[in-house]
Design goal:
Elements lengths: L3 H20 L2 H7 L7 E4 L5 H11 L7 H9 L3 E8 L2 E9 L6 E9 L8 H15 L4 E7 L3 H9 L3 E6 L9 E7 L26
Parallel strand pairs: 4-5
Antiparallel strand pairs: 1-2, 2-3, 3-4, 5-7, 6-7
Helix pairs in contact: 3-4
This protein binds coenzyme A.
Length: 209
């Protein structure tokens, strides 16, 4: 059972979520009315760019990924792009990036359309991202999250992510981030991939918020 502070935090998360849904656009609400019983996670394809850009715009106000970055991740980067679909529409995505010779994968982005948040889709994408990282031979998944993003932080903590560093400032608006990591309990296989790095590899900052 939650204590008082826990209930207070829960109420705050619900208010934040309500505000997010209020910001959702008409297209978003149309999706919310769809049959939500058959969500599916699949690999991203080149034709998903428009959907991914729309999710990005709906979910992030700063540090947005550019269309060409999505196109790069989908076609050339050493990364897994995972799309969550509902009724055939892409409504969420996660990108896991890898570096040659490194056993730690990076969750580059994770987002679900505002109107469809709070239904378990984010957790589902996160689990798929973890599976992808393990399959790739990584021993851990690392990410950065905005200090004030309580919903996301709660989700990561519940799935076993631990804070390893505070980065201040981190985002375009100067806000701080927490670096979090989940270490998998299976030994990593070394696997190197010779494909090119992402365009952001030169600048290690990720836009995970
Ligand atoms: C973070 C995000 C991906 C989570 O997606 P989601 O589909 O809402 O996630 P889930 O429904 O699986 O919920 C996961 C957890 O988030 C929190 N949460 C989400 N919605 C919530 C709500 N309405 N009320 C309270 N907590 C909520 C809870 O901790 C929840 O855990 P639970 O299993 O105990 O309910 C989504 O909120 C999002 O896209 N946010 C904007 C982009 C972003 O901030 N991305 C993260 C970058 S680090």
């Amino acid at each position: 059972m939650r204590d008082r502070a826990g209930r207070h935090a829960g109420r705050q998360l619900q208010q934040q979520s309500k505000a997010r849904r209020a910001r959702a656009g008409a297209g978003d609400r149309r999706l919310a009315a769809k049959n939500l019983t058959a969500p599916r996670v699949r690999r991203g394809r080149a034709g998903d760019v428009d959907s991914l850009v729309a999710i990005e715009r709906a979910c992030f106000r700063t540090d947005r990924m550019a269309r060409r970055a999505f196109a790069w991740f989908l076609t050339h980067a050493n990364a897994d792009v995972l799309c969550l679909t509902v009724g055939g529409d892409v409504v969420g995505c996660a990108i896991v990036a890898y570096r040659n010779g490194h056993h730690i994968a990076r969750l580059y982005t994770l987002a679900v359309l505002p109107a469809l948040q709070g239904r378990g889709f984010g957790t589902r994408l996160l689990a798929a991202a973890e599976r992808a990282a393990r399959k790739h031979g990584c021993s851990a998944l690392r990410l950065e999250v905005r200090m004030r993003n309580r919903a996301a932080r709660a989700m990561y903590e519940r799935r076993g992510y631990r804070q390893i560093e505070r980065l201040d400032p981190y985002y375009e608006d100067g806000a701080p981030a927490l670096r979090m990591e989940r270490v998998f309990n299976v030994p990593a296989k070394t696997r190197s991939r010779s494909r090119l790095q992402s365009p952001r590899s030169a600048a290690p900052r990720s836009r995970m918020q």
